[in-house]
Endonuclease III (Chitinophaga tropicalis), 215 residues
Amino acid sequence: MTKKERFAFVIRYFEEHAPNAETELIYDNPYQLLVAVILSAQCTDKRVNMTTPAIFERYPDMEALSHATYDELFPLIRSISYPGNKTKHLIGMAQMVMENFNGEIPSTVPELVTLPGVGRKTANVITSVVHQQPNMAVDTHVFRVSARIGLTTNATTPLQTEKQLLKYIPEEKVYIAHHWLILHGRYICVARTPKCGECGLRPACKYYHTAIRGN
């Protein structure tokens, strides 16, 4: 199977079995999504979803968050990984959005990555989810699943993975392909013991044919 054929198989499978895939973070607007994604770094979506309601109740919008103090915000995200840094990032992000972008969350990756706590992955998530831009966010799930299936070859960094995926995924499908790969990695192609017996991608998966079947 060529790489082009492998991508085509994977896309057809997910279009049939996960046509409405989306983020598992709970949010009502771009402000809430940006806060949630910043908090989700090296933390589960489940934990973030347990934490954000109290934040959004106290700080319902970007302006309110920009006036938060460290001592006020920190207790609300104490259970999140790296709460100290994320407290600083959230306050700094809100202040910069208010001061540099007139309170409007920027809609391009280069602008978003200027915000505290926002790296390329987060910026790609925001632009793809909110604006359906063809930007591929690569987290540990996307990185692992893409390599195992054989969608990427010798990709050693998230950026290399991103570029290889964008080469073969049709532009109009990039925004949902991000969710396909994340959810597949979260529930089927898990890190330690992938559930190959449950996986519909076996016919196209390099890992299955080499590590499991041995051919």
Notes: Residues 30-131 form a domain with the Endonuclease III; domain 1 fold (CATH 1.10.340.30). The CA atoms of residues 93 and 196 lie 41 Å apart. The chain has two domains: 3-21+136-212, 30-131.
